[in-house]
Predict the structure.
Amino acid sequence: LLQKIIKEYEGEVWCISKHLLAASMRLMEVGTKQLGRGRKDEAYDFFTKAYNLYSLFWGLNMKLLNVGDIKKIDEGALSKQDTEKKGVMGALGALVKKVIDCCIE
């Protein structure tokens, strides 16, 4: 199934993608287990982290992120010009939400 999403098999992108999806799924599983134990705050922390990894996966595979251009910037900043500092996660999360909302309509 991953081959249907990733058309170009650039070694790093393929490897990063499979790890992002696997880690996202593991975090969902742990979050679900915590929710079942009544630990709602911990569960939602895991769910948020899972969603962030899932958003990174789509950002990478929609070519919104270039692995070669990644550089360290201020914590939470998307770029040097980012004044809100929602970061990559905030921007990608909003994009994924918009795409999903569009598909539901």
User: Anything to note?
Assistant: Residues 55 and 92 are 5 Å apart (CA to CA). The chain is about 65% helix and 0% strand.
